Fold:
Amino acid sequence: MRVSIDAPQLARGVATVSRSVPARTTMPVLTGMLLEADVSGLRLVATDLEVTSTVTVAAEVQEPGRAVVPARLFAEIVRRVPSPRLDLAADPDRADALLSWERSEFRLHGFGPDQFPEPAAAPAGAEFTSFSEGTLRDTLRHTAFAAASEAGGRPILTGVELTLLDADYRAVATDGMRVAFFRTAERTDWAQGRAITLPGRGVDEIVRSIEAAGGQGAFCAHDNHLFVRAGATEVAVRLLEGRFPAILDLVPKQFPTTVRLDAGELRDACERVALLTDAPDRLHAITLVATGDGMEIRARSPEVGEARESVPAGVEGPDLEFAVNARMLLEGLRHLGDGELQIEFSGPQSLARVRKADDARQQYMQMPLRLGS
Structure:
């Protein structure tokens, strides 16, 4: 392999795929980055076997070939190259690569390219569904935060379920205490519905890649992977096995108490009142009190004190007190953004639903805390 390439462009590509290099692994070759040179340019590939990232960088390829270099060291060297051009060379009979520019030369010992696992890739001729600016990114970003951070015996809850339909696609995530849901009206090419579950780390990488590409791209679900193309990057995410719980079937059909109020005013009041709940051994409990006079947010700590704030709101239905974990609620409110919110309560001991007053596509639901008397 012999390649001449723009150094800053290479550095950007290396930084992107480096995120898929595992921090710990029992397979040393996975700490490497695969370099493949052919007529299309130089492909950079890294994988932890769950997420595979591929970036193609334009290059002058004098001789095609493959090499596997130590990813972290390669990234650090490339990032510091002062020259605008960099030459790469690799001998197919040796597990190393030569980097050179101006008066500098670095030879890196790596791995034989045949040791690197075959990168996950969409099959030739696979049909990709295009997404417009921000749609898939927002669908995943505004749900993934509610996924469980630890498996706790149910690994499926650490993921995001993405349902693909011909009329739209939608995502849902839950950790058992809260649910985040987002639906886009963007049409897809799926003739029949299909539900897949993406691991949280894979979702993070997809979102970052889409953002770097300006929000547009295309995706394809094939066998046990989701493939996303955004700009010069392709991300392949291995799907989680198992059936995601039908959590939306558990949402109450009736919400006797409905509150409408400004999202920013509610968020600011909750942040201030929650200051009294910051002790590490606490439930971070605040209480939302809905009455005909509006909404009141309360908190009480025997060691610290107590607080209450009133927020102007329109309330329909019976009065209600609803205790919640403030940190979870605030995270959900931040993802909902600004504007008028509608909060629907099914009861003091049952799930509450929050959404934009004029848009039900994005919803956040949270279970109450059961506080001792």
Remarks:
- DSSP finds six helices and 26 strands in the chain.
- The chain has three domains: 2-115, 129-246, 251-366.
- The mean pLDDT is 92.
- The first helix runs from residue 7 to 18.
